[in-house]
Amino acid sequence: MALILVIDDDDLVSRTLQRALKMYDYQVMTANSGIEGLQLARRHRPDLFILDIMMPGVDGYQVCRQIRGDPLLLDVPVLFLTAKAKDEEKIEGFKAGGDDYLVKPFNMQELELRVKAILRRLGPEKVEDTTVNEVVVGNVVLDCRTFKVNTPYQTILLTNVQFDLLYHLMSHADQVFNSQQLLQDVWDYPRDTGSPELVRAHIKNLREKIEPSPADPIYIKTIQGHGYSFSSEATRG
């Protein structure tokens, strides 16, 4: 049974999430501050964080950065659940290391679908899918053991979801995927669920990590009106 840690300074939200998620057969712990949540997580390593952003003291962005910097917790997925709805706020969440983002007020069924999808990606079948040691496209090498990508410009450590997205694109180089296909193939969301904003934000964040000029990408191309593709052309030579 998966263990979910809810970190939210609103006690009503925490208790509501705890009751609802228990109905879906998850174990749920709650914390009302970032510091308390990190302490709990280090004692009882969760399978997923559901994390608010606007909290006194240490906010959700800072908590997420600490999670990604902690060897015990760095690969635990983070779902931001917050009232912050602006695109730049979502981008900031993904830069901090978040895997997914849901805006309050939210639909409990959608939350449960996202939780299920995130946890399913971490199951044994995911390990079997990535038994290859590396994916190589031209001069770009994705190391499946270390979650690092090597380009002629730098070596970068990726978060879980960044790795999953890049693995999928590089494994199908030059193939074009629209947002809905990526939500199904990478995020494992059922058809017609999830937001294209999630894909756009992670593509943007991934470009900022691997592209020599994120505003003019040479690896992850946008094919206008169709979707995204990892180009093998730019990696030759």
From TrEMBL:
Its recorded name reads OmpR subfamily
GO terms for molecular function, please? phosphorelay response regulator activity; transcription cis-regulatory region binding
The UniProt entry's GO CC annotations, sorted and at most eight, read: cytosol; protein-DNA complex
Where in this chain does the record put each Response regulatory domain? Answer: 3-119
Which residue spans does the record list as DNA-binding? 132-232
Family annotation (CDD domains): REC_OmpR (cd17574), trans_reg_C (cd00383)
Residues annotated as domain OmpR/PhoB-type: 132-232
Q: List the GO biological process terms.
A: regulation of DNA-templated transcription
Kindly state which keywords UniProt assigns to this record, in alphabetical order: DNA-binding, Phosphoprotein, Transcription, Transcription regulation, Two-component regulatory system
InterPro entries in UniProt: CheY-like_superfamily, OmpR/PhoB-type_DNA-bd, Sig_transdc_resp-reg_C-effctor, Sig_transdc_resp-reg_receiver, WalR-like, WH-like_DNA-bd_sf
Per the record, residues carrying 4-aspartylphosphate are: D52
Q: Which Pfam families match?
A: Response_reg, Trans_reg_C
Query: Gene3D superfamilies of this UniProt entry?
Result: 3.40.50.2300, Winged helix-like DNA-binding domain superfamily/Winged helix DNA-binding domain (1.10.10.10)
Where does the chain cross the membrane? none
